[in-house]
Amino acid sequence: MKKNYTHLIYRSLEGGLDEDQQKMLDEWLQADKANELNYQQLVDIWRKSGGDHYPALGQELDIDGAYDKVMSKVKKPEMTMVKNKNWAFRIAASLLVLVGFAGLMFWNLNRADQYDSFVTADERKEFTLPDNSVVWLESNTTLQYHKDFDASRTLKLDGVATFEVTHDPQKPFVISTEIADVTVLGTKFVVGAQADRANFVDVINGRVKVQNAIVASDSLILTKGMKAEVNGNSGLALSDEVMSNDMFWATKQLSYNDTPLSQIFDDLKKYYEVSIDYKEKSHIDCVFQGNFTDKPLDQIFSSLELIYDMDVEKVSDNDFTIKGSPCK
After folding, report:
1. What is the CATH code of the structural domain delimited by 252-324?
2. What is the pLDDT of residues 201-251, one digit of tens each?
3. What is 115-244's CATH topology?
4. 238-269: b or e for each residue (b if 16 or more CB lie within 10 Å)?
5. Phi first, then psi: what are they for 205, rounded to 5°?
6. 82 and 88 in contact (C-beta within 8 Å)?
7. What radius of gyration do the chain's Cα atoms show?
8. How many CA atoms lie within 13 A of 156 on its CB side?
9. What pTM did the predictor assign?
């Protein structure tokens, strides 16, 4: 999804950006000369309008009023008689273009001002929405939500986020990505919208409806444990791929589908920040299917000991050794 840099620009002119948002704006300006040109045009309108605060610039669209306000701040040139009718026509046409441009800019500002944003750069963060729904954002993620959230629980996502939604059947909770719309029918789920991979939804609890934003007739209802991917024109489909383990810090769930036991050990080391020594190489061929939801590490080890012919020896608080016979 395209980020709302118009919103960031006007926030920066008001001095309202935090460090992460300023970094995002700086990177956008450096990425393309066209971005610098757009930035300068917005700065010019800001200055000519007298530096109005951003909310004031989002008032109901009024092309004539917007044009008059800008022109009243600009020094008027001395009038000279133009005998050539072609020149008169060109001046009139130029004024029409300027009025149209001013109206377009104010229309864009009005749209941008409808949303507030949560933004992460190189770190993960947890936020609470106005309805007390909780959202966990992966790094380099932007979530925009409607300013009048009580009336419209609509959001726009660019990145990966986990949602735990406050139930309110009278006010649908809808997350839009560039190629999918996710309507909440349940409670906790992960949504991914990244440029380098397919959009996905992974349901932890409850139900959600996933709608292909490009193919209107393409939709799915997902329940607990179900996952789906959407690739735009190629369609929306259920998936066996585990997509949400990287959000363990938010979901407290690890999900596996015929996953090598060695990969599970590596995940436990990463997410529980412990050392696991598994010298029995034959365990690499073992596979596991299932979920661990909000379980302490000792309970996970107990489950694996019951399933496989293995023992977990606790060397210290953060060091473990796996022993046992090959998988049967």
Report:
1. 3.55.50.30
2. 988 888 889 988 877 778 889 888 888 888 766 678 888 776 778 888 888
3. Jelly Rolls (2.60.120)
4. ebeebbbbbbbebbebbbbeebebbebbebbb
5. -145, 155
6. yes
7. 27
8. 13
9. 0.55
